[in-house]
Amino acid sequence: MTLEEFKDEWLSDVPYITAHTSGSTGQPKEIRLLKADMRLSAIATNRRFGIDSSSVLAIPLSMDYIAGKMMAVRAFEAGCRLMVLPVSNRLEICGHVDLLAIVPSQSASLIADCDIENIGNVIVGGAKISAADRAMLADAPFNTYCTYGMTETCSHVALADIRDSSLTYRAMPGITFSTDERDCLCISSQTMSFGSLQTNDVVELIDRESFRWIGRADNVINSGGIKIMAEKLEELLSVAIESPFYVTAYPHSKWGEVPVVVVESDSSALPRLESAIDSLNLGIRRPQRIVCVNCLPRTSNGKIRRFRL
């Protein structure tokens, strides 16, 4: 979808926008988002970042997904300029930009190839950010925020300052949080039509307006009665594995499940990977198997699809 095509849809008399989920946690699905909800979300973000008619927004993301659509709505609501850039991991941004939306895989090019002194704020979402990318963005002259949200909530409902060592997500105006018996996050809105939305994201709830993300309940590995969060293990392994990878469960006759690593690499790298992982002294969390594949399965917008072996 182009910006002009989306603008035509936005200006139509139909009260909703048709959007699609990314498919990272299941099959992609089509949903209808009320334009009134999208306006409320856009206005909240514009106020948070001081976006007005003199501002410049930029997006190198697809207009087929909520991140692209909402950047357009923010520009429409503010009456400001929107730079629609090629969807690529190689960014070319020149001139002043007040708010830029990216995914983690675009971080390196942002720092290496762009005029970063003229960028005010960056929001990064769509996938978990690595420790290396987080450190790189934290050292940049602009302000960077990790986003938490989903298509159903019209983009982010919380932001975390990337320079915050605890990466605490703080609610957007009108949003509050609670947890269920699994410690999974429940999102409540005082103004948007979804009202209350239960997620499968395990969190450490700090208060009704802030939390720390731990991982997906779907990705918990129960190994001998010990619950291992795949995302937390990935964070530990990221210092030893440079290639794209993910952690998943593998059946085990004694322990029920054990963690395994699926990595985008040639099998000739196995000895080096095993040695690097051994050096981390992970104990029971040590992956019991490394599976090398030529190419990890990904969604249409680049997220890794997790499959249990």
Task: Summarize the structure in words.
The chain is of the alpha/beta class and 309 residues long. It folds into 2 domains: 3-168, ANL, N-terminal domain (Rossmann fold), CATH 3.40.50; 224-293, ANL, C-terminal domain (GMP Synthetase, Chain A, domain 3, 2-Layer Sandwich), CATH 3.30.300. Helices cover 22% and strands 35% of the residues. It contains 7 helices and 18 strands. It has helices at residues 3-11, 35-49, 66-78, 107-113, 131-138, 230-237, 270-278; strands at residues 16-20, 30-34, 56-59, 81-84, 97-102, 119-124, 143-150, 155-161, 169-171, 175-179, 184-189, 196-207, 210-216, 220-223, 226-229, 245-252, 256-264, 289-293. An 11-stranded mixed sheet has the order 4-3-5-6-7-8-9-13-12-11-10. Strands 16-17-18 form a 3-stranded mixed sheet, covered by helices on one side. A hairpin with a 4-residue loop joins strand 10 (175-179) and strand 11. Helix 2 crosses helix 3. The chain is globular. The relative contact order is 0.11. The mean pLDDT is 93.
> Under the CATH scheme, which architecture of the largest domain would be assigned?
3-Layer(aba) Sandwich
CATH uppermost class of the largest domain: Alpha Beta
Main sheet record: 11 strands, mixed
How many domains make up the 3D coordinates?
A: 2
> Roughly how many Å is the radius of gyration?
20 Å
The CATH topology of the largest domain is given as Rossmann fold
- C-alpha termini separation: 35 Å
Helix content: 10-25%
Segments where pLDDT lies below 50 for 5+ residues? none
* Count of helix runs: 7
CATH superfamily of the largest domain: ANL, N-terminal domain
**What gross morphology would you assign?**
globular
Q: What share of residues are in beta strands?
A: 25-35%
Overall pLDDT level: 93
The SSE string, one letter per element, is HEEHEHEEHEHEEEEEEEEEHEEHE
Strand order of the largest sheet: 4-3-5-6-7-8-9-13-12-11-10
| Number of beta strands | 18
Helical/strand content category: alpha/beta
